[in-house]
Write a structure and sequence with these properties.
2 copies of one chain form a homodimer. Chain A contains 6 helices and 3 strands. The first copy, chain A, is mainly alpha-helical. Chain A has a single domain (12-124), classed as Arc Repressor Mutant, subunit A, CATH 1.10.10. A 3-stranded antiparallel β-sheet of chain A has the order 1-3-2. In chain A, a hairpin with a 5-residue loop joins β2 and β3 (85-90). At the A-B interface, α1, α2, α4 and α6 of A face α1, α2, α4 and α6 of B. The structure holds a DNA duplex (20 and 20 nucleotides).
Chain lengths: 133, 133
DNA sequence: CCGTATCCTGTGGGATACTG
DNA sequence: CAGTATCCCACAGGATACGG
């Protein structure tokens, strides 16, 4: 982590916190990461993206894409054809996020069962928490 | 649940998607990642956590911690003293998330300026998007 | 000191219908 | 096909006040 950066008077912990908050506000929503992961291989059309990202509404897909385009993570290419065709793909910047998305996916697949188990245990019995808040 | 079993009828892409959605629903909120990152070194008391996680309200810190405890990512240890003392720390499972948080932090610090620049450009001029949706 | 309870607001996000 | 517009609800999350 860039401790070398001349942070002047700002402690690195604070800068890190702000940065994490920023990135979470941007890609921590319900669909951004999923869209980026879906586009990791090659560009897709709107409809393809809609199908691939099962469960997303047109509205949210549009909004998500707009935000990602504004942030410079995704490109939008409209072909002047009939019927109209639009393709979305990752920018170089967007591609730098792909490893993180994949890491997140791997972590999730590796541990979500364990998490669900632990959660269920708490929900039902609360068998092992004597000092329950 | 037998990951060794080849995904029967379910394509791996789908499982991955579901897992990503799940993990994002759990740690993709406003404070969870931040709390985990803050606890990465050693356990902290409630008040310390509140100060370290600048901007969090008591309510949200409580709720966030409860969810993390339920999911088995964080431990809560209450010492029967006067005045009362409570310490929160990461479980082994929680610790497996730390590298991801750090990676996210590094990505954010490396690219947030570029993102902000791109966003500003779009907000003001929209100088380079002829076919604006 | 460590929370919980209550109230209140903004907004994320779904459903649906319409346009170019 | 690729969106936009509108309505509406649920809930994340802040402020404040109170309990153990």
């Amino acid at each position: 982590m860039a401790e070398v950066t001349p942070g002047a008077g700002v402690p690195p912990r604070i800068r890190e916190r702000g940065a994490v908050r920023e990135v979470l506000d941007r890609v921590g929503d319900k669909w951004s990461m999923l869209v980026i992961g879906t586009l990791r291989a090659d560009p897709l059309r709107f409809g393809e993206l809609e199908q691939a990202t099962a469960g997303v509404s047109q509205r949210m897909l549009t909004l998500t894409l707009r935000r990602l385009i504004e942030d410079g993570l995704v490109t939008r290419t409209a072909f002047a054809e009939v019927p109209p065709r639009v393709e979305y793909g990752l920018t170089d910047l967007g591609r730098t996020l792909v490893p993180l998305v994949m890491a997140l996916a791997e972590w999730a697949m590796a541990h979500h069962e364990q998490i669900n188990a632990h959660r269920s245990r708490h929900r039902s019995g609360t068998a092992d928490a004597p000092s329950r808040p």
